[in-house]
Amino acid sequence: MDYDATADPQKLAGELKRSADADPARWSAFNPNLSYAGKTVIGYHESKPDRPDLQVDWYVVAKGRIRVHVGCQYATAPLRDRVAAACEQAVRTVEILN
Length: 98
Known about the structure:
Elements (H helix, E strand, L loop, with lengths): L8 H13 L5 E10 L2 E9 L7 E9 L2 E9 L2 H17 L5
Antiparallel strand pairs: 1-2, 2-3, 3-4
């Protein structure tokens, strides 16, 4: 990124929100202050138009000029529950060093 998301978190949130709003059939549940895995992250949900059987929950961790998007994909609600534990661990262990 060409800006510091730690100093200006609203800039990153606004950028991602505009992208989500541009395609509401694909992107939903945008939350710029989601508490997840012991962190405050940006969260949103993706419904894949070309693969309606797949869903993805996205979590964005940012520090300085670096951001990491962690996507957790599943096909059914029971699979979502199984993926959730691994997803939470992945987000919890993201550490941005800069």
